[in-house]
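Researcher: I need the complex structure. Ligand is magnesium ion. Inputs:
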Amino acid sequence: EQQGVEAPVFSAASYACQRSTPQPGHNTLLTDSLAVLAESAELNGDEGRAVAFRRSEALLRSLDRRVQGVAELRGLPCLGEHSRRVIQDVLDNGKSSEVEETKSSSRYKAMKVLTGIFGVGVKTAKRWFTEGICSLAQLETSGHTLNPAQQAGLKYYADLNQPVTRDEADAISVTVEEAVCSVLPGAQVTLAGGFRRGKTSGHDVDFLITHPDEGKEEGLVHKVTACLESRGVLLYHQTTRNTYQESPEGAGRPRSNMDRFERCFSILKLVQDPVQVEADQTDSGCRPWRAVRVDLVVSPISQFAFALLGWTGSKLFEREMRRWAVHEKSMSLSSHALYDNNQKRYLTASSEEEIFAHLGLEYVSPSGRNA
Ligand code: DGT
Ligand code: MG
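Model: Output:
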């Protein structure tokens, strides 16, 4: 109200896991701009810069009202000089020149198209872009041999780049639950990822599967994919087995922790509601189905709480929780376990609430984890 020394307008904790971050938040013009710069840094393979922009974006998304001027942000954590400059530009001009330039750059556009192919990561896309490949048509005539994932990615490109709706995720849930329960009665299927956080659309549908009797879940992925295949809905799949027992905690790079469950990256055929198909007919080419990316992850019940926390996301929220664990609590958190480096022992948990409590954090419900 008064000029001069004002009380801070906003306050926020520095780790994203210490606050609740809704989707989409009250500052979408700002957060969308920062997200473009984060994505661009990711596409350049510059992870440090990408994380810095993601942190700024998440901080702004957690604020409980619209930011009117950059002065209101004084004292807030996570906002570096670069982010503040972008925010200032957007507040003053309605958009950021850097963001506009980024979005219209041929590199950004090409990298988005190429990494939009399932099975193509930043490294591969960069190599292709260096060779002058900027479009799907150029890739197809380039003579490059594509691996099976990339071939499927190209084949279903349009479908896989059309966001999955909540209704579609629910329909896929029914299919997956039926398959899982027919091969292992009593197994539990939980929708994880962005949909568990309450997002209304996503790039894929993530499921976490477990069974109350430890051990019963072993080898489940193969049985489920065989079942889906026999029902004619499995368009593509690649399975990785559980390697956690072979080298538990510590061995190897910590970032590989999350990939050690038995897991299946798949593309499923979602048969669509006939009424909906009629409405979409012009652009879906009369096909009564669409392809959807589905991830199936199998966890033993003893690790389920950790797996659920790890597979609910968001990626930044997970990253911040692990950073908090290491730097503030001297603990190591993964999707499998929590290790206390001071007590030199694992801390068990049978719910997400217990994991937050072990870490000395206030519980954040899934809808608040949209960092
Ligand atoms: P989206 O893009 O709408 O599907 O959004 P999300 O939040 O569902 O993102 P998604 O599906 O990529 O991943 C969900 C969570 O699962 C994510 O927060 C972290 C975990 N996760 C998924 N894939 C991987 C992976 O390959 N490595 C690791 N470390 N974590 C993963
Ligand atoms: Mg997802």
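Model: Summary of the prediction. Residues 193-194, 199, 202-204, 206, 258-259, 311, 313-315, 318 surround 2'-deoxyguanosine-5'-triphosphate (ligand 1) (CB under 6 Å).
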